[in-house]
């Protein structure tokens, strides 16, 4: 029997360590009276993230969107950039804020990432870069994208907002491309309330990024670029240091929830699970289901059924970025150009997954989905 009066279950929640563990960090910030501008915790978090993620050069930001805008600035990207319509809208907004024309290409049906063949077909003389997204932390086809970029002389900046800690064949996914951008928003596997980072290839580029995120200052009186205020403050950085201590627990709990869903839905007709290749590690950032036409009810009907029980599943990503008013007039935004992305956006439904999701709440979610799976079949 499905509980008729459940508590609200969001699609995700930030992991919050015990408050007593955070108090010493706050007391140190109060004692030092250094709350921002490259403080002690900021420097420590950059160092520890480099070690944890297996990268050499990382710059912290107040949020992932500012990081993505700055990455494009740092690479001096102009003209046209090929990107995916199947992402959070900030991916394309970052191009818009830099005066860059987004060119949407279709996605691969299995990975849900940019289809390399569609990338190559979209290249014009005005193309300067590719902005792929590791959707749901599933790595893009980085080898083929690298080949395309090398062949046509293009830059590659990865939106890796979902991909914290992901590795491919033992190598950090963040090492691919010219830059990668992470998000540390409260909905992410690793969070600093709000936050983000740029991962780049060399110390010189990191210095440029660090200048750009601090208004373009290189010293007290010298400004060398039209920068922005993208700095992460000490409270965010301190929380990140604390979060890192709990990542083993976070990953274990997310994996447990993911496996329970997979066991429940693996053989249900009309439901397709998003699979990650065996040579890739997983961070269990999301749990997307594809509700295909074989399922007895539509994706939207299943969504409404979950919502009726206070379960905040998300149609993530729907609508496509290319369908929003500010982008739908672009030549590349037509549904005829994006048939796979269009179809998948009308099938995908992300179920709640976060470390504190109680087993009873997950069982309720599973029961609702399965009841929809069998309702019409039993009636017929």
TrEMBL record:
Q: Which InterPro entries match?
A: DegT/StrS_aminotransferase, PyrdxlP-dep_Trfase, PyrdxlP-dep_Trfase_major
Q: Which residues carry this modification: N6-(pyridoxal phosphate)lysine?
A: 188
UniProt keyword annotations, A-Z: Aminotransferase, Pyridoxal phosphate, Transferase
**What SUPFAM superfamilies does the record point to?**
PLP-dependent transferases
| One of the GO BP terms on file | polysaccharide biosynthetic process
CDD domains documented for this protein: AHBA_syn
Q: Does the keyword Disulfide bond apply?
A: no
Q: Which Pfam families match?
A: DegT_DnrJ_EryC1
- Where are the active-site residues found? 188 (proton acceptor)
Q: Name one GO molecular function term.
A: transaminase activity
Family per record: Belongs to the DegT/DnrJ/EryC1 family.
Protein name listed in UniProt: Aminotransferase
Protein's organism: Paraburkholderia lacunae
């Amino acid at each position: 029997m499905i509980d008729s009066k459940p508590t609200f279950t969001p699609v995700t929640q930030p992991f919050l360590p015990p408050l007593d563990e955070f108090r010493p960090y706050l007391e140190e910030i109060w004692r030092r009276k250094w709350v921002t501008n490259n403080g002690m915790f900021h420097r420590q978090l950059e160092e520890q993230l480099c070690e944890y993620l297996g990268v050499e050069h990382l710059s912290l930001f107040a949020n992932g969107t500012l990081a993505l805008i700055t990455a494009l600035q740092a690479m001096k990207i102009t003209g046209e950039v090929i990107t995916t319509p199947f992402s959070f809208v900030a991916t394309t907004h970052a191009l818009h804020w830099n005066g860059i024309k987004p060119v949407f290409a279709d996605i691969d049906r299995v990975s849900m990432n940019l289809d390399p063949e569609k990338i190559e077909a979209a290249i014009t003389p005005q193309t300067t870069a590719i902005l792929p997204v590791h959707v749901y932390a599933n790595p893009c086809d980085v080898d083929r994208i690298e080949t395309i970029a090398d062949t046509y002389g293009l830059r590659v900046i990865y939106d890796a907002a979902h991909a914290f800690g992901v590795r491919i064949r033992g190598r950090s996914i963040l090492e691919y491309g010219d830059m990668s951008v992470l998000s540390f928003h409260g909905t992410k596997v690793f969070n600093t309330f709000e936050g983000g980072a740029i991962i780049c290839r060399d110390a010189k580029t990191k210095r440029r990024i660090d200048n750009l995120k601090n208004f373009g200052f290189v010293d007290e009186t010298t400004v060398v670029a039209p920068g922005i205020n993208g700095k992460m403050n000490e409270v965010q950085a301190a929380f990140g240091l604390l979060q890192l201590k709990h990542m083993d627990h976070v990953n274990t709990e997310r994996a447990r929830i993911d496996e329970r869903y997979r066991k429940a839905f693996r053989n249900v007709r009309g439901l397709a699970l998003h699979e990650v290749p065996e040579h890739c590690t997983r961070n269990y950032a999301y749990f997307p289901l594809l509700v295909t036409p074989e399922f007895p009810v539509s994706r939207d009907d299943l969504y409404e059924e979950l919502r009726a029980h206070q379960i905040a599943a998300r149609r993530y990503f729907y609508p496509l970025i290319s369908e929003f008013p500010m982008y739908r007039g672009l030549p590349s935004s037509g549904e005829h150009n994006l048939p796979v992305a269009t179809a998948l956006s009308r099938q995908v439904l992300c179920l709640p997954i976060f470390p504190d999701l109680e087993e009873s709440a997950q069982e309720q979610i599973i029961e609702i989905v399965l009841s929809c799976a069998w309702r019409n079949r039993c009636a017929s």
